[in-house]
Amino acid sequence: MPQQETERRWSVTNREWPMMHAILSGVNRDQMMAKHKANHIQVAYANSSAEADRCALTKAALARELGIAVNLCGITEANLLGA
To answer: Which PANTHER family match (predicted)?
Structure first.
């Protein structure tokens, strides 16, 4: 995202809130936000998309075990199969 757009967005909110610029695979911003019910999301940081998928799936499995509803966005069957 251009720095000018980042600054514009920070000018209409609190700068204390982190702003993440991300590349979403298999889902666009509007599709993700349609399921998003909070003012924050869970993120998995990794050195590759395969590592990020594994990390996200691990976090999702833990959340489900704790009784938390989970919606995964951007993880496709091809990602899971290592294609």
So the answer is: L-FUCOSE ISOMERASE
pLDDT values of the chain reduced to their tens digit, one per residue, 83 residues: 788 988 998 898 887 877 777 777 777 878 877 877 666 667 777 888 788 888 888 988 999 999 988 877 766 555 555 54
Task: Tell whether 13 is covered by a domain.
Answer: no
**Does residue 12 lie within any of the structural domains?**
no
74-79 contacts, C-beta under 8 A, 24 or more apart: 74/24, 74/25, 74/26, 74/27, 74/32, 75/25, 75/26, 76/25, 76/26, 79/25, 79/26, 79/49, 79/50, 79/53
Number of domains the chain contains:
1
